[in-house]
């Protein structure tokens, strides 16, 4: 029997087991530090290497500090702390593409000594492996083998590519600027489109600048800009579908002051790294069922899963919260500024046609107490929940990137701090589809020779032609030719007459 073995490929995304990485960062503030007023911490991954059983990766933690010096001056510093970590699993194989993400889940100033500051940062590492899995299937051209074929939709991974771009934005002011203290920039992908040989990724770049004006007053401003970057990916076509994400290296953000007699402006140059992954959907004919008219068959089936990704979705909302100062903190007589604005997504799930995103927003509030004319800082942690309609079903994997915008902090009655902000989240979703295919078959014993020329068989109501023919071990066309009045599937218990060529 002429059985042939063939293969096809399907995309497979496998999540890493999440874990925690602790990074110890030592940085210099440039001068002796009396107090840390705000701290911004961001983590990102620079490169990864996939070997059999392990994914090694390297990344960095960017830290931005606003400090009160021993000389009474408020200054800021930015530093990068490199680190490395790994994932280990028996599923990891050389040649797979690894996509690793880290997010800051906690940080703590462990010590201050002169101009040196030690910060402990706890990161959550996550991500996934992406590759094509080979699936064995069967082909046959033997006249004695009857085939029931089906067209299967298959998803194949095409590859990924990275690109870098710089988004330049301006904040125009009517006042002169003495010093920029802090720039916090973030990027959010809003749309991903495909073309021939490239992926177009677009989104928002949001920067908040904290500065001191010529009257020694703290001011801040947001600038919202957009980007659109084409990432080369030669295997892409207009029919491909894609995922995309981006991040900012905080230490590489450049903030420039431009001033003239009419006032000043702040120019922010934000470098972003963009990544795109592409897939294609295709059709393939496969054998769904088979039988032989001469032999018993031993048939092997193989089940497999392939990953289907969904279009990018955006969820937006507001975060509101408050904090009552504990007795150990002096009252707020004058709010100066806030910094270290960030948020962490702690959970996301789908239920009853809605997506829910949970997390914690953070900011450091710096204020003045008139009683002793001293500066104080308190961290505000605000839990939040976002919900929106979502068309996908439960059971898949959610990958969330989120950023803050328009953070505002207000103090009432000296001890109540109110927090208000907008949040935007991009949602990448994928799920596994389980399929099965006949992967092998072999012939066993021949059927016994029929010693009769005619046979009457009976088909129950609702039986289709394929099922009747397979049970009788004859070809479908024989049943149709010898029983032309019968319509399938049958509506009643139906007798069928089969004639055989008798060989003496």
What is this structure, in a nutshell?
This protein is mostly beta strands and 504 residues long.
Q: What does this protein structure show overall?
A:
This protein is mainly beta and 504 residues long. The protein folds into 4 domains: 1-141, no CATH class; 148-293, no CATH class; 316-426, no CATH class; 449-499, Membrane-bound Lytic Murein Transglycosylase D, Chain A, CATH 3.10.350. 3% of the residues lie in helices and 74% in strands. It has helices at 465-472, 476-482; strands at residues 3-15, 19-28, 33-51, 54-69, 74-88, 97-113, 116-140, 145-173, 177-195, 198-213, 218-232, 241-248, 254-260, 263-292, 295-309, 313-324, 334-351, 354-369, 374-389, 397-412, 416-446, 454-459, 494-499. Strands 1, 2, 6 and 7 form a 4-stranded antiparallel beta sheet that branches. Strands 8, 12, 13 and 14 form a 4-stranded antiparallel beta sheet that branches. Strands 15, 16, 20 and 21 form a 4-stranded antiparallel beta sheet that branches. A hairpin with a 2-residue loop joins strand 3 and strand 4. The longest helix has 8 residues, at 465-472. The chain is elongated, with a radius of gyration of 33 Å. The chain starts with a strand and ends in a 5-residue tail after the last strand. The relative contact order is 0.15.
Mean pLDDT reading: 93
Overall SS class: mainly beta
Question: What order do the SSEs take from the amino end to the carboxyl end, as H and E?
Answer: EEEEEEEEEEEEEEEEEEEEEEHHE
For the sheet with most strands, the description reads: 4 strands, antiparallel
Shape: elongated
How large is the radius of gyration?
A: 33 Å
Q: In what range is the share of β-strand residues?
A: over 45%
User: Termini distance?
Assistant: 25 Å
**What share of residues is helical?**
under 10%
The tally of structural domains comes to 4
In total, how many beta strands?
Answer: 23
Low-pLDDT sequence parts: none
Count up the helices: 2
């Amino acid at each position: 029997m002429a059985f042939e073995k063939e293969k096809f490929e399907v995309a497979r995304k496998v999540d890493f087991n999440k874990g925690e990485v602790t990074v110890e960062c030592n940085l210099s503030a440039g001068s002796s530090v009396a107090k840390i007023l705000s701290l911004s911490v961001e983590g990102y991954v620079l490169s990864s290497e996939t070997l059999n059983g392990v994914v090694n990766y390297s990344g960095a933690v960017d830290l931005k500090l606003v400090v009160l010096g021993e000389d009474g001056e408020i200054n800021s510093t930015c530093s990068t702390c490199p680190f490395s970590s790994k994932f280990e699993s028996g599923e990891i194989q050389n040649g797979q593409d690894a996509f690793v993400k880290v997010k800051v889940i906690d940080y703590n100033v462990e010590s201050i000594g002169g101009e040196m500051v030690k910060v402990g940062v706890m990161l959550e590492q996550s991500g996934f492996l992406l590759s094509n899995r080979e699936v064995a299937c069967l082909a046959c051209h033997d006249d004695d083998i009857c085939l029931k074929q089906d067209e299967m939709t298959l998803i194949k991974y095409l590859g990924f590519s990275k690109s870098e771009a710089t988004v330049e934005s301006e904040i125009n002011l009517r006042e002169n600027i003495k010093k920029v203290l802090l720039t916090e920039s973030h990027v959010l992908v809003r749309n991903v489109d495909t073309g021939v040989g490239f992926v177009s990724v677009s989104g928002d770049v949001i920067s908040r600048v904290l500065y001191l004006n010529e009257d020694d007053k703290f001011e801040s401003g947001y600038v919202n800009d957009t980007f659109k970057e084409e990432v080369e990916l030669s295997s892409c076509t207009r029919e491909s579908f894609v995922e995309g994400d981006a991040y900012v290296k905080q230490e590489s953000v450049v903030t420039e002051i431009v001033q003239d007699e009419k006032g000043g402006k702040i120019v922010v140059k934000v470098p972003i790294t963009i990544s795109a992954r592409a897939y294609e959907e295709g059709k393939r004919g496969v054998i769904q069922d088979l039988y032989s008219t001469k032999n018993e068959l031993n048939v092997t089936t193989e089940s497999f899963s392939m990953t289907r990704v969904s279009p990018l979705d955006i969820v937006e909302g507001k975060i509101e919260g408050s904090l009552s100062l504990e007795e150990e903190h002096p009252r707020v007589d004058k709010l100066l500024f806030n910094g270290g604005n960030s948020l962490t997504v702690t959970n996301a799930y789908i239920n009853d046609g809605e997506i829910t995103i949970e997390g914690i927003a953070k900011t450091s509030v710096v204020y003045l107490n008139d009683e002793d004319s001293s500066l104080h800082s308190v961290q505000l942690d605000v839990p939040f929940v976002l919900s929106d309609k979502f068309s996908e079903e439960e059971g898949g994997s959610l990958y969330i990137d989120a950023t803050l915008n328009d953070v505002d902090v207000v103090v009432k009655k000296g001890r109540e701090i109110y927090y208000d902000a907008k949040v935007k989240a991009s949602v990448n979703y994928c799920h596994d589809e389980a399929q099965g295919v006949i992967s092998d078959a072999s012939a066993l014993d021949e059927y016994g020779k029929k010693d009769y020329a005619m046979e009457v068989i009976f088909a129950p109501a609702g039986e289709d032609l394929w099922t009747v023919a397979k049970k009788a071990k004859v070809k479908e066309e024989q049943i149709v030719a010898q029983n032309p009045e019968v319509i399938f599937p049958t509506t009643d218990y139906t007798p069928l007459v089969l004639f055989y060529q008798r060989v003496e």
